[in-house]
Amino acid sequence: MGLILTQATDSKNQIHTYLERSVPFVGTDIPRIDGIDGTGIKIAIIDTGVDFNHPDLFGWGHDGKVVGGYNFIQEGQPPMDNNGHGTQVAGVIAADGQATGVAPKAKILAYKVSEDGEGVSSDLIIRAIEKAIEDDADIINISLGVNKTNTKIERAVNQALEKEIFVVTAAGNDGPELGSIGSPGRNFGSVTVGATYNNLTSSLVATLEVNDKPYTVIPMAGNKKTEDAISGKLVFGGFGKVDELKDLDVKDSILIVERGSDVKEELLYFSIKETNAADAGAKAMIVYNNIPGIFLGELIHEFIEPNYSPRIPVVSIDREEGLEIIESINGDEATLNLFFNPDYLAHFSSRGPVSPFYIKPEIVAPGAYINTTQNNAGYNFTSGTSYAAPHVSGAAALLLQKNPELHHHEIKSLLLTTVEPVSDAYGDEFSIQETGAGRLNIAKAFDAKLIIEPPNFVGLASSDNKVVEKQFQLKSLDGTWDGFDMTFDGPEFIKFGGELVDENILNVKMRVLEDKFGEHEGKIKISHEGIQYVIPFVLHYTQGSISIVQQNEKLFFEIHHPEEWSFAKISVTNSKDGRIDTTTVTPDKAASIDVYENAEYWVDAKIRINGNTSSAYNTIEIKTLEERKRLDFDIPERQMVIIASAVIVIGIIGIVLKRR
Hints:
Blueprint: E1 4-5, E2 8-9, E3 15-16, H1 19-25, H2 29-33, E4 42-47, E5 66-71, H3 85-94, E6 107-112, H4 122-134, E7 139-142, E8 144-145, H5 151-162, E9 166-170, E10 191-196, E11 204-210, E12 213-215, E13 218-219, E14 230-236, H6 242-245, E15 254-258, H7 270-279, E16 284-288, E17 314-317, H8 319-328, E18 333-340, E19 363-366, E20 370-374, E21 378-383, H9 385-402, H10 408-416, H11 432-435, H12 442-447, E22 450-453, E23 457-462, E24 467-476, E25 485-489, E26 494-502, E27 505-512, E28 518-528, E29 531-542, E30 545-551, E31 554-560, E32 567-574, E33 580-585, E34 591-594, E35 600-609, E36 612-621, E37 642-643, E38 648-649
Parallel strand pairs: 4-6, 4-7, 5-6, 7-9, 9-10, 10-19, 14-15, 15-16, 16-17, 23-29
Antiparallel strand pairs: 1-21, 2-3, 8-37, 11-12, 11-18, 13-17, 14-18, 20-21, 21-38, 22-24, 24-27, 25-28, 26-27, 28-29, 30-31, 31-34, 32-33, 32-35, 35-36
GO molecular function, one term: serine-type endopeptidase activity
Transmembrane segments: 640-657
GO biological process, one term: proteolysis
């Protein structure tokens, strides 16, 4: 459940909300100078409905903010939000009052597909997408997620894209594990958004090193940044009780303790542990989880002692790493550092990859410490990729208002190629599979004069084909060409070259110079009229390869590998809906599958060689079929969709509020 807060105020009692931090942070001030505010754009929000009585989202019907929609839970009733999630999403997009969204004058279509924000059948999401198409939505925001590919949702999203609707999906909150994005975030054509921190002083990140080995730690809410790194000997302090620390040499140490207590029902808050550690002379404290996984904790909460203020930094760590540190303590020194970094990937944000053939997520935006509209005229501090996605939906509305003639894929290019880099605590950029191209920058996208398509790509190379070529369509928005500079940021063993084939076609060629098999990534950077455009890529370099031949309604496959192989499993994915068909092949047995519609098909082969598995990839585009219907068993889908947000409710200064 969310924590309902009324407002945050400064010393002059002027009302401020944290939308006034995240929204300008992603660059909305530039469009607003030109009077671009979302006027004339309709954004469909498929969610728990919208509280259209909220003063910042006021009005139901033609003259209101919420100009239409549909209640799929109680048909015949308006799509009023009784949960709060949809209202929070709507506020980020289009709040126009005490809080100001990214596109405050945009109109909303509210489609209620869930009552409680916990679950909904995939059929309702599909019906909502179809209704949004019928209602002429310009943009669809889906802050929902499922834990696997859903072919029916995928196809519905593609139908919206075919109708020139820009579709934005939340990546989900199942990070930091890789491969944790489900439908519709897996959809190839939609823009999938992960979450970064926000432009607040509470956007702290931390580093911990023990014997030069880095560990993942999260600052607790209430910490302040450290001016210098803190170093000290590691000491294990049990649960951090006074009696446990009195006989230990804790002075100037970094104390590590376990979360909770060994006494049932004892409320040993983090603030109590911090007080005990500081009183004993510790410089900092690490709290490891008492159950598997990492957690977020708060030092400042409603049960603290009067006038309590944290004196030493406190961070949390997962149980496995905490136990590893304890088991290896032998007078070891540790170094801890806390610092402000708004462009840092939120730990909960779901990561890719979802496929060897395309990149997800494609972009990230602020999704932590967001104070947005809440039911009953309130405002709610909350976190999740559900609140990152509407930043991108609002940004698309601004670009569409400025350039109403642009196609959805051109808007996508402007947003994805004009991003800011997202770096980890050590200054290294996160991988493309984690953050896509980078963090949303609306100001750069608004000023951009160059559309580059595609805005990212996956290249396939093998030991018998070491060259990857890619053509990019270039479009100048002002019709002028003053030339551009191009650089390559990638592995040194890849030789890069590029040239204009004609005025609008850029041909890029990459040649692999060394047999470093595996997945590699990089970025092509183009500078044009003062703006740098970024085109991320992933290159798969495999030892083996697979060839594809189409004969009428069948695809035939042949495996090539320099070593002797015994068996291969071949998976063929229809790019239109994510449907996967599989077949097997041996050196003595050919393999084929039937195809039923014109589409691009992605082929992934897993080749068995002396007990090991080697991958090979290829793609084929089919355009010559007389399409036919395939027979499918219609198995009802269980209710498996969950709201991809609100994993975290933010307090006035912090993040999910685990106190003990």
